[in-house]
Amino acid sequence: MKFASWLLTLTLWLLAACSIPANSDINGTGGVNALDQRDKPYLVLISIDGFRWDYQDLADTPALDRIAENGVRADALVPVFPALTFPNHYSIATGLYPANHGLVGNRFPSKDRRRFYSLRDRETVQDGSWYSGEPVWVAAEKNGLVTAAFFFVGTEADVAGVRLSYWNAFDASISGRRRINQALDWLAMPDEQRPHLITLYFEHVDTATHRFGPGSKGSLSSIERVDAYIGSLLDGIDRLSIANDVYVVVVSDHGQADVVRDAKPFFIDTVADMDDITIVNHGSAAFLYLPEPDHARAEAICSAINESWTHGKAMLRDETPDSWHISSDSGFADIIVQADSGYSVYSSRDDLSHSGASLGDHGWAPEHKDMHGIFLASGPRLPEGKRIPAINAVDVYPLMMEILEIPLVAPIDGDPSTLTDFLISR
């Protein structure tokens, strides 16, 4: 009884120290690894928002270089359309394109137009009904592996009736150092409670590059700052008894490009009536949702825009490139107005004033090189110093599942062979 009491006290202390609720959902682990899963590897998934494919070569990044030298580095990670934070993070987490996982933007209306999802609305962000697919943490919890997140899109929600064992609501005021220390504390927990999957997210590079522009002093400083956080994580992992069982995967959701200086934005309401249309402005693109299906009106709006604008294109949903994977019933907008890289489009001048000016941005066509992100990975079954061609965001999921030794049973859009063929046999 004394041992049981001591163990309960220790567990409660650890949970309090984490300041993160334990999962009590019967569909998850309840914060305890299944007995037959405790010898599985550990995976730390790190996302650096807005980290362009070439930033590692522009700044001093000893930690990222260390991961590349000890593991695998892709030439780039090609984002899904749209090249925005929420769709791409959730594509990395599920191996699905937005049309199949549900997050078709950072902000968007439901298919019946009765609800609205927004990255800034905690109620919708934490509402699992918006999220489809089986994110890696749900698959892990269902297979008896404890999971933890210090931020990542989807980790605040109850997805398919399953929550992570430990999670945090996004709060940019929480320092990167605290996030790293928490991850190391999780990895130092007893093997009964130790998370086998941990997600970390750093917004600093994206924030700085929006403000100062890609390649600026402020942007480079933020890159080196995040790299230092990751260096502390790597050093901390090396001191753990489980160091030889830990994988580290680093991704970014998209890159960044310069906003063309002195270029005038295009305002849609100067050529078409927008009064009853729901519009989501991203600057680099505008998504138009008509109040009801009206093909003739949608065609007329596209024609009016394309006849008046030379730095972008308006497209009906079924006219978009096949590589964007936009289906008719996907929840994407009726009209997609995509600016050329560096240029901007807004529904009206008022929407521009509400959005504010940026020197760097994203959300342009994902095939544009500046929209590409990074992929790095190291761990016991990964070859050292291997450079591979660019991969797609949806290709990361199968690798994570293989690392965690979880059967790949849910439908995915990613190619399982892209990142698993070169894994070293157990």
Tell me what you see in this structure:
This protein has 426 residues and is of the alpha/beta class. The chain folds into two domains: 20-258 and 368-420, 3-Layer(aba) Sandwich (Alkaline Phosphatase, subunit A); 266-357, 2-Layer Sandwich (Gyrase A, domain 2). It is built from 14 helices and 19 strands. The protein has helices at 2-18, 55-58, 62-70, 85-94, 98-101, 122-125, 136-142, 176-187, 204-212, 217-238, 295-308, 349-355, 396-403, 417-420; strands at 42-48, 72-74, 77-78, 107-109, 116-118, 147-150, 197-202, 246-251, 257-258, 266-267, 278-281, 285-289, 312-316, 335-339, 345-346, 360-361, 375-378, 386-388, 391-392. A hairpin with a 3-residue loop joins strand 11 and strand 12. The longest helix is centred in the middle third of the chain and has 22 residues, at 217-238. The radius of gyration is 22 Å and the shape is globular. The two termini are 40 Å apart.
